[in-house]
Each structure stands twice: as C-alpha cells, then as structure tokens.
Amino acid sequence: MVDDVIRIKAIDLDYAGRGVARHDGMVVFVYDLLPGEEAQVRIMARKARFMTGRVIERSTTSPSRSPYPLVHGAADLIHLSSEQQLDWQIKTTRETMRSIAGLDVDINDVIHDDRHFHYRNKSVFHVMDHDVLTLGLYTYDNQGLCPVETWALADETTNDLLACITKAAINVDPKTLKHIVIRTNPQGQALVTFAARSWSFKGMEPLTDCLKKQTGVVGITLNLSDNPKRILGSKSKIIYGENRLKEPFHDGSIEIDDRTFYQINLPVIQKVYDWIKHRLTEGATLIDAYSGVGVIGLYLADKVDHVTLIESQSTNIKMARHMCQDFQMKHIDIHHAKTEDRLDSIEGNTLVVDPPRNGLMPRVVDIINARGFQDVFYLSCDVKTLARDLANMMGCYEIQAVIPIRLFPQTTSIETLVHLKPKRM
C-alpha cells in the first residue's frame, strides 16, 4: 500500500535512471537506487502492475555510485559513475531497439569526450518564488525547485555569473521575472537573457548593472515570455551590448542570438558530424531535413556536390542564409517548409534527418522508403521514437551502424546516430 515501508534490492536501472526491483510479484521503480543496492523504501504510488518508491535509507552502496548526490532533474544520472553511464546508454539503446522495433542489432561504442562536467554552453535557470532573486533547478522527482548557486554541468563563465547574481541579493517580483538564460562561448563571453512576462520588472536595473560589470558579458536581452509552455517567447529587446554571441563552427565562427538553437556540447557533436563526413560517398548530393540553422549541412558542405536545407522556423532560415553568405557557400539551397511537405520534391541521393523528440512524421518515413536514398543518417534525441521509425523502414533499408552519443553526461538524455543503406534486392 501507499506509505508502506519495504526493503528491496535493485536488480536493474531503467531508461529514466530509476532502480528496478521486485516485491510481492510487483515491479518497483525507485530513484537514486543503483543495481545491487539494498534500501528501505517508502511506497509513493501504486498502479495495477508496478509501484514507485522513495529511498529512506540505503544499507549497501554500489561500487558504481559516484560521489555526487542526486538532486536535480537536469542531472538525473549524476549518482552513477561516468564510466558506467556509457554502459547504461549502450544497454538502454539495445533494449529499446529490441522491445519497440524488434531489432537485435549491434551497438557501436559511444561517441563521447572526457568532459563529464562543465560542458554546457547554455543553461536555463528558473526564478524561485522568493523576494530576493534566487535561481533554481527542478528536483529529480519534479517536486519543485531547489536553489542553485553553482551548476556542475555549466561552464566556468556561467558559474561566475551565477555567483554574481546570488551575491547581489536583488529584490525582484518572481511573478514577472520567470527565467534567466545564460549562453557562453569558449572565449569566456556570455549573452544573458531575462525571460519575463512584461517589458520591465522589479529589480531589472540593478540586475543589469550587476551583470554589466562582469568580464565577458557582451549582451543582455529581455525576452517577453508570453507562453507558459515555453521558456522564451518570439520577441526580445536589447538592454545592454548586443544580441549576438560568436560560437565556434568548423574552422571559423558563427554569430547566434538569444533565441538561436545551437548545440550545447560542441566538441562531442563535432565528432558526430565528422563520423558522418567520413562515410559520405563521392558525388553525394545532400538533403539536410529538420536542418535548424543548417549547421549539419554546412559542416558537410565541403564533402558533397550540393546541399539542400529544409527548415520550418523562419528565425532559423534567416540565420542559415546569413551563414551561407558569411562562408560564401554557393552550392546550398534553403527551403522554408515542413519536411513532410517538401522532401519528395527535392533532388538528392543522401539524407540527414535530425527531427525533434517526437521523431519523423509518417509521411516522411513513407517518402524515405519510396526514395531509396543511397545513405540515410538519422540523428535522434529520443531512442524510443527512433526505434519506432526504424521499424517502419526495415522493409526498404538495412542498418549499417547504431552509434550512441553521450552528448549530455550526467543525464538520462540519449542521443543516437543511425546509418542506413537501401536493402539489396
């Protein structure tokens, strides 16, 4: 029953980083419990086939447990050693492919680097309901916000700004100022964005003055947060410096603004792009679908005869056009359209897809199957929808490689690259 206290031993770790145990014929899922660990657990919820619980006290500790406590949902695997996280990702990828797609495939080694912490170049902090500005992150069990004065996944520049904000002890209205977003680059520069529900808020001037004094802050923007389901709205205004930050790209740099989608862990994603580049065939004509600002297509452009970008967001289209001009790329076409509406009318023999978390639209899968591209590179941020889509492509394609990507260490986020070629008839 709910609130009962039981003693269990975890036998597995699921896709959400929860310990898996059995008790009286039922599965029990428990956060912060690793395989092999025994603990007293309080039952928090009971369903028809499973229960969820919370650790009261562990009586044994796994050798795979890291020295870092599980606190934040944005670092929901931090209690597992970084080395074991790689094994967990391979195992989870393999099991998901088997359970959802019925595919028993070999899983390649994980693409990663040695930066297990302090790798993020963008961090979002939520304003807590306090009179003095207090920034927080959601707890691992999503029960609310907890204060954060340093953030283990953010870089040094971000943590310096966090310390500055905390020390300033500025009075704000948390009903108006909702979030602070910090974007940084390897040069130690930062673009800071206040996400608020109006074009002014209590404490804006002293907060701006505090940040302006910090070395490396090149811009501060105010974004009108007009949709409670999104951090940033569609409108921003500059309140200091400029709404621009240079980020490394290939052998040069690009300029992004406060709303540009750009990769958070650049060294690792560049390894992924290089993996694709080394497998492109001579004479390839590339379609980059769900292209965002076009980073993948532009990165691969020097290895192919032609690139076509397909993107539905107008701000990304604008940025992609600027990048093509800046890098003087003449063999790139840009289509402002949804992939499902345009893919079947564009010429190309090689396809890269990088869809959102919900995966490919059914029509896109149908087009891919009908086109028979010589190479398909599917970059996924959700292994479940990836497996679903692959199951619907196996009549026409063969998997060449499944490569887990450790893009977000200390989290249960799973990125995956799959390379496919047409089936030999």
What does this structure look like?
With 425 residues, this protein is of the alpha/beta class. The chain folds into 3 domains: 5-65, OB fold (Dihydrolipoamide Acetyltransferase, E2P); 84-115 and 264-422, Vaccinia Virus protein VP39 (Rossmann fold, 3-Layer(aba) Sandwich); 122-256, OB fold (Dihydrolipoamide Acetyltransferase, E2P), CATH 2.40.50.1070. Helix content is 23%, strand content 31%. The protein has 9 helices and 22 strands. It has helices at residues 82-101, 156-168, 204-212, 266-277, 295-300, 314-326, 339-342, 362-371, 383-391; strands at residues 5-9, 12-13, 19-23, 26-30, 38-46, 50-58, 122-127, 135-138, 145-147, 177-184, 190-196, 217-224, 236-241, 245-249, 252-256, 285-289, 306-311, 332-336, 350-353, 375-380, 397-405, 415-422. Strands 9-8-7-10-11-12-13 form a 7-stranded mixed β-sheet, with helices on one face. α3 links the parallel β11 (190-196) and β12. α1 (82-101) packs parallel to α9. The longest helix is centred in the N-terminal third of the chain and has 20 residues, at 82-101. The protein starts with a strand and ends with a strand.
